[in-house]
Amino acid sequence: MSMIDASFLYMENEFDLHHNAWLGIFAGPAPSGDEFRRHIASKLPRIPRYRQRVRFVPHDLAAPVWVDDQHFNLGYHLRAIALPVPGSDAQLRELFTTMMAQPLDRNKPLWDMWLIDGLEGGRWALISRLHHCMADGVSTTDITTTVLDREPTAEIPDVIDDWKPAPPPTDTELVQAALIEAQQQGLEQASRYNTWLSSLKEQMSVVDQAFASLKNSLANPLSITSLNGPIGPYRRWAWAKAGLADISGIRKVLGGTVNDIVLAIVTRAFRDLLLSRGEEVADRTVRCLVPVSVRSIGEAGGGNRIASMYAELPIGIADPRERLAAIRTQMDGLKASKQALAADVLTSLAGFQPPALAAAGARQASHTPNPVNTVATNVPGPQHPLYLLGRKMLDNYPYVPLASTMRIGTSVFSYDGYARFGVSGDHESMPDLDLFADALGEGLRELVAAAAAEPATVKA
């Protein structure tokens, strides 16, 4: 496990759980519990991490390691429950937030799935939780497309699965391995560090520019403070969706990337939220962490391969066209400044720290005020239907965990023609989360209207 992956374990506490999740809504009827279990069992050989658990090295002498679960029981990770028929979307969301408040058992593989029957219209749902130390947004999507099928087949394939857990290491063996690794790294560290430093020197002007951009983004205090503060153990969660055809139409006329338009929609939602609270928005911004995947094209595998950019969402701009233009200009500037490179350099530098020091720093981070107001993730998914046992997945809404003093976050997942928004909020301090979710829809509609009012000129 990398230290970046491990940091999501170290930062976790009872109020700050670091599991990612998604909720899929499927056409009925729901499969039986036995069908569901056999289907997931047929996928396990392709997801080896699902049968491994975390083992911490004594005294944090090394990063935690993945070990086979000697007592792996698939039934523990698969649950089936039903809402009172006809279950509403509101009841489903309430059930979802209840599950998000429950920590994953660290003595077992850090994932579970819940089959939820009884939704109105004959639908059913699947809730999947997966700890952030196992996967980022991109690798979570890879796992999702492994669990689900591209074709609407109801047949469960015969899979030869001769998996047997490898013998677990003892604490003594873990310590010995950590000491040997430390000794080897001590001999190799200088060489690795010099190689890494040389590669940076070759692009030093770009690196200097990246760090200057990062410093400028975080130098000023937050202009909106009501979005930050202590959070409790419980969450609210709401959703919205936007047609990718609508977003494409906006791009053709008003310009920008899909992510620019998503951020413009999120900005409108924050504007409405703060205005409804009677707060001043003129000349103010909401600072937003925008994760960026640093995976190379075709790079697969689990774990976390992300860097960050920091955008100031211009909530003071009322006109949707001007708002999108401001975001587009800002994001183009952040990309040109290579700000994400600075974050990636800091991440790489963390790999040269002694593991115990890195662990202590990550634990302290969970008690440190967050330098941003919010987070907005945007993960592209498959633009074709996915199925589970022949049942089509109609919708897939993501969940992003909150961290430290950040009370609201937005995650976007595109699937089969729609960008679906999942909005996470602290239960006590975000009672108006539904207003925010409704405003996402308004943000899309006003951009569609703005694009329709202008001549069709394609902008890069």
Determine the CATH topology of the largest domain.
Answer: Chloramphenicol Acetyltransferase
CATH top level assignment of the largest domain: Alpha Beta
Number of individual domains: 2
Q: Termini, distance in Å?
A: 40 Å
In percent terms, what proportion of residues is strand? 15-25%
Q: Going by CATH, what is the homologous superfamily of the largest domain?
A: Nonribosomal peptide synthetase, condensation domain
Order of helices and strands: HEHEEHEHEEHHHEHHEEHHHEEEEEH
Average pLDDT confidence is 87
Shape label: globular
For the record, the CATH architecture of the largest domain stands as: 2-Layer Sandwich
Strand order of the largest sheet: 4-5-6-1-12-11
- The counted number of beta strands is 14
Family: Belongs to the long-chain O-acyltransferase family.
Protein name: diacylglycerol O-acyltransferase
Pfam families: WS_DGAT_C, WS_DGAT_cat
Keywords: Acyltransferase, Glycerol metabolism, Lipid biosynthesis, Lipid metabolism, Transferase
Describe this structure in words.
- Keywords: Acyltransferase, Glycerol metabolism, Lipid biosynthesis, Lipid metabolism, Transferase.
- This is diacylglycerol O-acyltransferase.
- One of its GO terms (cellular component) is plasma membrane.
- Belongs to the long-chain O-acyltransferase family.
- One of its GO terms (molecular function) is diacylglycerol O-acyltransferase activity.
- The protein is α+β, with helices and mostly antiparallel strands.
- The chain has two domains: 3-171, 2-Layer Sandwich (Chloramphenicol Acetyltransferase); 211-452, Nonribosomal peptide synthetase, condensation domain (Chloramphenicol Acetyltransferase, 2-Layer Sandwich).
- 40% of the residues lie in helices and 22% in strands.
- It contains 13 helices and 14 strands.
- A six-stranded mixed beta sheet has the order 4-5-6-1-12-11, sandwiched between helices. The chain has a six-stranded mixed beta sheet with strand order 7-14-13-10-8-9, with helices on both faces. The chain has a two-stranded antiparallel ribbon with strand order 2-3.
- A hairpin with a 2-residue loop joins strand 13 (408-415) and strand 14 (418-426).
- Helix 9 (258-276) crosses helix 10 (320-336).
- The radius of gyration is 23 Å and the shape is globular.
- The two termini are 40 Å apart.
